[in-house]
């Protein structure tokens, strides 16, 4: 059985970490995750949920695999993990991480590659690198700083702090906190909502965020018209314009059209 798998339900896909209770991030995990992302990207899904079986989303690296390996083996392993994570970030559809229990280090970095995060009340977020003489290896330093600010990110990583789901929501890392027994349903509902939205519009918005992350407001401004103008002639936009026009002329409330993703 794969440690990571891809399944779909209509327009919503799920990448499932399926090696509980730890869902350790090891050699097999990296291979299976990249394969699952490729399946997701080659499908016609319109939203993706990253979720995990068992009590924990994931407890970080499979450290028992590491002793005796040389640094070139380790560099290649980490590069391949990053390849899988970057492939998630490169998807043009909305992505959602649904987490419970422990979310540690490499799994925390996986969460930071998703667009939105829903957390169960049991979820805790932690870094252990400073306890092991290491630093975050899959983009966690810079992505956490981007989301919660430099000072908070610095404190979490240097001091190996653990934060709760509620604290994560307060600092803007988590979109929503739900009861543990509601996590799956909440993730399904938000995934379905995103999948029913204007998919090409979402892709343009994600690209603008990426431009801003790479070069600030001026970089996003430089791409704004190139990313947005083609949306004007899409079926989704034209149908929305028609719905708004009809509502205004009829003096009625606007009812959004059904978005097809085209």
Structure description:
The protein is 48% helix and 15% strand. By secondary structure, it is α/β, with parallel strands linked by helices. The strands form two sheets. A six-stranded mixed sheet has the order 1-2-3-4-6-9, with helices on both faces. A three-stranded mixed sheet has the order 5-7-8. A hairpin with a 2-residue loop joins strand 1 and strand 2. Helix 1 runs parallel beside helix 2 (71-90) and helix 4 crosses helix 5 (150-158). It starts with a strand and ends in a 12-residue tail after the last helix.
Biggest sheet, open or closed, and with what strands and sense?
Answer: 6 strands, mixed
Give Rg in angstroms.
20 Å
Provide the residue-averaged pLDDT: 94
Helix content: 40-55%
Tertiary shape: globular
Low-confidence stretches: none
Strand content: 15-25%
Cα-to-Cα separation, first versus last residue: 36 Å
Spatial strand order of the main sheet: 1-2-3-4-6-9
Please count the beta strands (DSSP E, at least 2 residues each).
9
Helix and strand string, N-terminal first? EEHEHEEHEEHHEHEHHH
Structural class comes to alpha/beta
């Amino acid at each position: 059985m794969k440690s990571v798998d891809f399944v779909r339900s209509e327009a919503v896909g799920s990448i499932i970490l399926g090696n509980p209770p730890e869902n350790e991030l090891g050699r097999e995990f990296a291979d299976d995750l990249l394969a699952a992302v490729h399946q997701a990207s080659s499908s016609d899904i319109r939203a993706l949920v990253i979720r995990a079986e068992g009590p924990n989303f994931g407890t970080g690296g499979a450290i028992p695999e590491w002793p005796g390996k040389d640094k070139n083996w380790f560099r290649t392993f980490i590069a391949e993990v990053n390849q899988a994570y970057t492939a998630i970030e490169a998807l043009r559809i909305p992505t959602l991480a649904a987490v419970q229990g422990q979310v540690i280090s490499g799994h925390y970095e996986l969460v930071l590659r998703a667009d939105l995060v829903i957390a169960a009340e049991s979820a805790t977020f932690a870094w252990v690198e400073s306890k092991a003489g290491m630093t975050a290896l899959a983009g966690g330093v810079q992505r956490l700083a981007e989301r919660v600010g430099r000072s908070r990110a610095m404190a979490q990583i240097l001091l190996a702090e653990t934060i709760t789901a509620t604290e994560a929501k307060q600092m803007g890392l988590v979109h929503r906190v739900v009861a543990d027994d509601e996590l799956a349903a909440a993730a399904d509902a938000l995934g379905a909502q995103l999948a029913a939205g204007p998919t090409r519009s979402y892709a343009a918005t994600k690209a603008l965020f990426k431009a801003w992350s790479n070069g600030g407001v001026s970089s996003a401004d430089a791409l704004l018209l190139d990313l947005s103008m083609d949306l004007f002639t899409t079926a989704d936009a034209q149908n929305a314009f028609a719905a708004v026009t009809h509502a205004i002329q009829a003096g009625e409330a606007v009812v959004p059209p059904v978005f097809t993703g085209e």
